[in-house]
Amino acid sequence: MTLAVSANFDSGNIDVLSIDNPEDIRLSIRQDHQSDFYQWFHFRVTGAKGVPLTLRIVNAGGSAYPDGWPGYKARVSECRQVWAQAETSYASGELTIRYTPRSNSVWFAYFAPYSMERHHDLIAEMAQKPGVDVSVLGQTLDGQDLDLVTIGEAAKNKGGGNKRSVWIIARQHPGETMAEWAVEGMLRRLTDPADPVAARLRQKCVFYIVPNMNPDGSRRGHLRTNAAGVNLNREWGTPTLEASPEVFHVLAHMDKVGCDFCLDVHGDEAIPHNFIAGFEGVSEASEHQFELLERYKTALERISPDFQTRVGYEPSKPGEANLSMSTNALAARYGCLAMTLEMPFKDAEENPDPAHGWSGERSGHLGRACLDALLELADDLR
Ligand code: ZN
Fold first, then answer.
1. Rounded-to-integer distance, Cα 134 and Cα 147, Å
2. pLDDT of residue 162
3. Which of 152, 329, 347, 363 is close enough to 236 for a disulfide, judged by CB 3.0 to 4.6 Å?
4. How many whole angstroms separate alpha carbon 307 and alpha carbon 345?
5. How many C-alpha atoms does 276 have within 13 Å on its Cβ side?
6. Beta 75-77 vs 132-139: how paired, if at all?
7. Of 34, 177, 52, 44, whose CA–CA distance to 115 is shortest?
8. pLDDT at position 322, please?
């Protein structure tokens, strides 16, 4: 079988520069369409059973976040269920991955992929559950459905009108697949009839969950933008149907049903920790909002050993918030607790796992813990 590299599949991304020598396969990551961003890669190597491979991503140094490469390990899988860390090094702008496949088919990715097929499986699974409503908010530029999972709304209309509107949105940046893994964990817990935290939350809140804000970027193998090369998390000031229908439709529904809480789930390339970024620079934000923000972070740190509050982004100064970002825009628009949850592409230093690094599974557990923290302040979310 001839050695080959392919990426023409859901969320695939790589260009092959040369493949003559298995110990010097030269690859480059494609830019997001109509954008300079790139960092996400996902490709398959065939015909290399037992052959020591050296894969060099030669344009890593020019990627969106070159600080993401030192200390990073590429993920590899032969079964497409478990994704392990491969031997990886970064020098002189090149990311070098070394691996000897046990079979003639092996996949490499920036992080455990979350395919659109898996997304549809998740939506179908949720649609079967009692008390869950699955709907389509609109279409993306590529004509994909923008899915919304609503939990507990029927009860709101039947006298539960005081329920809080809780929004969870993920994968505005499509290459941050850990975000949808986290939301999968949240959805499974929220719909578990035996889980007492979920039961209590369903009494107090209506959940509006968008597991994938950017289906087009996901399928195209983008890092950060949609089909038009637009970074959705810079569109929350004035989204348009032409450039950012994903944000346009979500914001329209938020205006309709309200927003008392929003967790926007992301991944960070450089920082090897889980952390939350708030709306510190929003001058309109109230003391109550800032108090809720501190309470939420403190609760999550106590609940999950994978979460911490020591390392994160430098908060914006008062009045200097970028109001095109969802967390700032929503905190200002609705006076609510809005937050950005960031998870690492590298391992999480609080609780390292040298074999797998930070993973989809661990993202799911952090998602579940986010619900424990939410319950602690659900009554005060207004
Ligand atoms: Zn992001």
1. 7
2. 87
3. 329
4. 14
5. 30
6. unpaired
7. 177
8. 97
Please tell me the distance between residue 250's alpha carbon and the centre of ligand 1 in angstroms: 17
Q: Has 320 been annotated as catalytic?
A: no
Cβ count near 120 (within 10 Å):
14
Written as six digits, the tokens of 60 are 């890593």
Residue pLDDT, tens place only, 278-298 = 999 999 999 999 999 999 999
Nearest-angstrom CA–CA distance, 266 and 179: 5
How much distance in Å is there from the Cα of 281 to the middle of ligand 1?
Answer: 18
SS (H, E, C) 152-206: CHHHHHCCCCCCEEEEEEECCCCCCCHHHHHHHHHHHHHCCCCCHHHHHHHHHEE
Place of tokens 């809720």: 292
Residue type, 59: N
Task: Give residue-wise pLDDT tens across range 232-267.
Answer: 999 999 999 999 999 999 999 999 999 999 999 999
Q: Name the least confident of 34-48, 57-71, 150-164, 329-343.
A: 150-164
What is the whole-number distance in angstroms between the Cα of residue 22 and the centre of ligand 1? 34
pLDDT at 160 over 80: no
Find the 341 Cα to ligand 1 centroid distance in Å: 9
Crossing angle between the packed helical segments 196-204 and 178-190, to the nearest 10 degrees: 90
Query: How far is it, in rounded angstroms, from Cα 289 to Cα 327?
Result: 12
Catalytic-labelled residue, pool 176, 180, 184, 342 = 342
* pLDDT of residue 155 exceeding 70: no
* Domains with residue ranges and CATH for the chain: 4-109 (2.60.40.3120), 116-380 (3.40.630.10)
Q: Are residues 99 and 67 in contact, defined by beta-carbon separation less than 8 angstroms?
A: no
Closest CA to 17 of 33, 3, 32, 5: 5
Ligand 1 ion: Cβ-proximal residues, 5 Å cutoff: 173, 176, 266
Q: How far is the CA of 173 from the centre of ligand 1 (A)?
A: 5
Give the three-state DSSP class for 135.
Answer: strand
CA 335 to ligand 1 center in whole angstroms: 23
Q: What is the pTM of this model?
A: 0.98
Alpha carbons 336 and 164: distance in angstroms, whole number? 11
